[in-house]
Amino acid sequence: MNTINPSISTGVNMRDKQAAEIPVPQDKPEDTIIEEGKTVGKPFASDPKFQLRNVSVSYGSDRAIKDISLDIGRNEVISFIGPSGCGKSTFLRCLNRMNDSIDICRVKGQLMLDGEDIYSPKRDVVELRARVGMVFQKPNPFPKSIYDNVAYGPKIHGLANRKSELDEIVENSLRKAGLWEEAKDRLDSVATGMSGGQQQRLCIARAIAVSPEVILMDEPCSALDPIATARVEELIADMSKSYTIVIVTHSMQQAARVSNRTAYFHLGHLVEVNETNKVFTSPEHQLTESYITGRFG
Length: 297
Ligand SMILES: Nc1ncnc2c1ncn2[C@@H]1O[C@H](COP(=O)(O)OP(=O)(O)OP(=O)(O)O)[C@@H](O)[C@H]1O
Hints:
With 297 residues, the protein is of the alpha/beta class. The protein has 11 helices and 11 strands. Strand 5 and strand 6 form a beta hairpin.
């Protein structure tokens, strides 16, 4: 359990204020019961895919992520949970540099993938995003055929030399995404004509098609009905054998169903990381307990 330390966030804000000469909003009162950079539970892993150390992210003068350190294990499924605006998506998007397109966004700290710096100037970001794929909240297929949606990535990454190889990648990816039976007779149909759940599984197939090592999922089921959600959750269980999966979810039931570990975020801090069962049955931090018992969020 963390101790109360009201001086920490106030001190940092004063320094930022002097440096930038821009008024910085004061942190909220709850911020004073989370010690900066201190996470309870088990934030580290024995076989890490990602090693993330002292990560801070700002949008202009607003700090969205505050000195977070976390490992994400190889072939682990980890859920990020926490109240709206606590920084889950911001942190997720650092893992494949999706924040690069936001001019005011600044990422500090050390972010390593398989021991190599994600933010190194030498890093090929296109290759990074093939290794660390992403599935978004709202299914976003291209306005092209089902086949072309899945074939697009392998084509631009030169993964297939012949049409037969491309056909094989498309079929395998659709099979892994649990969509082959529904899609095989309509591969030339436009993808946007599919149901929402089918479109989301198509987006998963599209991510799988470039042979990623990691799949980031930002509230992948929030636009889906319970049946489509159940299909995607089954898929996550199947995919966890081959990929590292990081999922942001507002559904504590979903986090409990799909993940090995759960990370609880609060006001840009990483408060607690533990085995999922532990987080939901005997959380170590008072803020985690308040959240899972529905006292806020
Ligand atoms: N593009 C942006 N420009 C400026 N501020 C941003 C931007 N994106 C996010 N933020 C701010 O960063 C903070 C964290 O937002 P983020 O979306 O990461 O939280 P979240 O936990 O994923 O929220 P939600 O659960 O509502 O999706 C919020 O205060 C948000 O307003």
